[in-house]
Amino acid sequence: KNEVEQSPQNLTAQEGEFITINCSYSVGISALHWLQQHPGGGIVSLFMLSSGKKKHGRLIATINIQEKHSSLHITASHPRDSAVYICAVRKVGGSQGNLIFGKGTKLSVKP
Amino acid sequence: GAVVSQHPSRVICKSGTSVKIECRSLDFQATTMFWYRQFPKKSLMLMATSNEGSKATYEQGVEKDKFLINHASLTLSTLTVTSAHPEDSSFYICSVAGGNRPYEQYFGPGTRLTVT
Question: Which residue, A80, B72, B78, B84, shows the most beta carbons closer than 10 Å to its own?
Answer without folding.
Answer: B84
